[in-house]
Design a protein that fits this description.
This protein is an alpha/beta fold and 264 residues long. The chain is built from ten helices and ten strands. It has one domain: Rossmann fold, CATH 3.40.50.
Length: 264
Amino acid sequence: MNAISKVEAAPLLKVDGLSKWYGHIPGCMDVSFEMRPGEVLGIVGESGSGKTTLLNCLSGRLPPSAGRIEFDTRRFGLRDIYTLSEPDRRRMQREDWGFVHQNPRDGLRMRVSGGANVAEPLMNMGQRHYGAMRQATLDWLSRVELDTTRIDDKPRNFSGGMQQRIQVARNLIHGPKLVFMDEPTGGLDVSVQARLLDLLRELVRDLDLAVIIVTHDMAVARLMADRLLVMRRGQVVETGLTDQVLDDPQHAYTQLLVSSVLQI
């Protein structure tokens, strides 16, 4: 999908007045935005800025204190996800979404094989043909540049970078409409980070995926995101096209973030 058609497309996600409070402490406050199919939205800010709280609210993992999150679901159309019943919301999360954790162990079942991890979303969607699922798994292991002869190895026998690739395949094999990524290259060696980022960018482009990615790394944001939300103390202080925000930051906090990267 090109940039013009993305702008013209109906929203995939509509967020209005989203807030989360922990007692008197704000996690995020009055966040509103829309995103469209095929768009990659980056959420950036320092530790404690509220970006992880926002991600968890958006992904249905943490109920907000106020506001609406409307998503164009396959089964129900555009619905506020928190008005869905718990079983329907879980089904939507399985069928329509993916979630790539920073630590791949949080997103994998460590006691079953890498292949079983990748195939599980297909089973959750009702597929039962073993041969077809195994072939799809082999295809995806190849797509994320893993040795397909290791399909029956358990995740603990893979390096951290390889585990992250298994997690990526697991979250894309079922054709989600939206994928959440929480610092997907955090904790990896620099050389491993670089290749994984290139791979993620290729997959996102080839599949025309909608992605919300949280990162504190401005280089990751520039490489992956079409548009940025900059957060500070739970509030969005600046938003815009990624190159605009990073090359000509308007808010003092964004200027500080960008200048700190340039000084490294």
